[in-house]
């Protein structure tokens, strides 16, 4: 048999009967004893007046060891105890309400903290994605710059080859002109010699 924090076993919790009131203290869903302030067990009946005191505790010999209701009645017979009984009950009611309000506030704050964490996670994920894209763009820019430098070197080499080819062509043209001059001179020289003879 397992016992929960309210002092009742699992079978009693599943038994038919009363249900905890809405907004009940989770630590004491059935209320607290007016005498010892301990959580009360689940009422055995579905109807009727809700218990205000812990059920009597019996020893092994069957005698009552503790009876909160009897102790409360005995204490109320003393004038001083009767004078503070009502203020203590009012204080207990106020503190119970404050505890419920604090639990509600804690639940709202936990929900807000979860929402904030979701926002932070979303921002971090987006920043990570932006950083990845920026790194890719920087890598593409470096590749483009390297390609531009290679193209400039290739263009410089092509210009140098073009200049060298132009110089070679001009030299070839000059040699061809010189060869034509020599050939022309050679043709005109024998004709002059023949005329002299």
Structural features:
68% helix; two-stranded antiparallel sheet; mainly alpha; rod-shaped; 197 residues; 3% strand; Chromosome segregation ATPase
Can you offer a commentary on this structure?
There is one protein chain. This protein has 197 residues and is mainly alpha-helical. It has a domain at 10-113. It is 68% helix and 3% strand. It contains 3 helices and 2 strands. The protein has a two-stranded antiparallel ribbon. A hairpin with a 5-residue loop joins strand 1 (57-58) and strand 2. Residues 1-13 have low confidence and may be disordered.
Topology readout:
Blueprint: H1 10-14, E1 57-58, E2 64-66, H2 68-77, H3 79-196
Total count of strands: 2
Q: What is the CA-atom radius of gyration, in angstroms?
A: 53 Å
| Total helical segments | 3
Q: Span between N and C termini?
A: 151 Å
Main sheet properties: 2 strands, antiparallel
The helix/strand class is mainly alpha
Range of helix content: 55-70%
The strand order across the widest sheet is 1-2
Low-confidence sequence ranges: 1-13
Biased composition (Low complexity): 13-29, 160-169
Region (Disordered): 1-62, 137-172
Biased composition (Acidic residues): 1-12
Organism: Actinomadura chibensis
Q: Nutshell version of this structure?
A:
With 197 residues, the protein is mostly helical. It has helices at 10-14, 68-77, 79-196; strands at 57-58, 64-66. 68% of the residues lie in helices and 3% in strands.
């Amino acid at each position: 048999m397992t016992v929960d924090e309210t002092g009742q076993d699992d079978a009693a919790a599943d038994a038919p009967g009363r249900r905890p009131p809405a907004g009940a203290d989770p630590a004491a869903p059935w209320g607290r004893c007016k005498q010892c302030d301990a959580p009360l067990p689940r009422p055995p009946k579905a109807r009727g007046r809700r218990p205000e005191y812990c059920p009597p505790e019996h020893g092994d010999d069957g005698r009552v060891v503790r009876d909160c209701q009897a102790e409360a009645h005995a204490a109320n017979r003393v004038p001083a105890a009767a004078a503070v009984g009502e203020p203590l009950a009012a204080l207990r009611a106020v503190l119970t309400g404050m505890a419920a309000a604090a639990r509600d506030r804690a639940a709202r704050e936990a929900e807000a903290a979860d929402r904030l964490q979701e926002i932070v996670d979303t921002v971090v994920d987006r920043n990570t994605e932006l950083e990845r894209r920026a790194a890719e763009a920087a890598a593409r820019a470096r590749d483009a710059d390297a390609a531009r430098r290679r193209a400039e070197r290739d263009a410089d080499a092509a210009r140098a080859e073009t200049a060298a080819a132009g110089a070679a062509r001009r030299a070839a043209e000059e040699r061809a002109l010189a060869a034509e001059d020599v050939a022309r001179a050679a043709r005109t020289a024998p004709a002059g010699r023949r005329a002299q003879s």
